[in-house]
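Submission checklist for the structure archive. All mandatory fields must be present; incomplete records are returned to the submitter.

[x] Identifier: Large ribosomal subunit protein uL4
[x] Organism: Mesonia algae
[x] Residue count: 209
[x] Sequence attached
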Amino acid sequence: MKVAVVDIKGKETGREANLSDAVFGIEPNDHAVYLDVKQYLANQRQGTHKAKERAEITGSTRKIKKQKGTGTARAGSIKSGIFKGGGRMFGPRPRNYGFKLNKNLKRLARKSVLSQKAKNNEIVVVEDFNFDAPKTKNLIEVLKGLGADNKKSLIVLGDSNKNVYLSSRNLKTSEVITISELSTYKILNAKKVVLLEGALEGIETNLSK
């Protein structure tokens, strides 16, 4: 698949980038995408929730009323979960929500969403650019030129670029990442995926293994 390479103003440079069919032209696997997104979101959870159970409550251990003859249910401790101030029954405990997925499935998921984006014309290939200094205004101008200023956008760099990255931190709808940070969730969450020329080879190399 051939895509026109544009400059930061959105004008065609006269060159074309060849998007590999092995990465950008496969039949999407929805279940692989689901599992990869589920794992990404699960890994965001801290899992630090905790409620005190009966054994952790401070209180008297005496039997609060006699066993028989009260006409009500027997009760042995004020720390029981049925009383106000008692422990939480089956409460949350700290845990890790993460789970493992094999590398081939994760690659398949990334290729699936990239192929879907390419099919929907939501991928733009831009020639490599840089800023002299971190400035949000400069990146806004670039996004306007690419028609992505009012959309959620994901800019993928070939190598880390401090000035471009810092220019994006004040923008709620735009994110700048490198190839190593590319994930199924981030691609899926963006309405426009902006790939720098320098990132294409690395993406295809990583996902064609």
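[x] Structure attached
Curator remark: The chain has two domains: 2-45+98-207, 48-96. The chain has seven helices and six strands.
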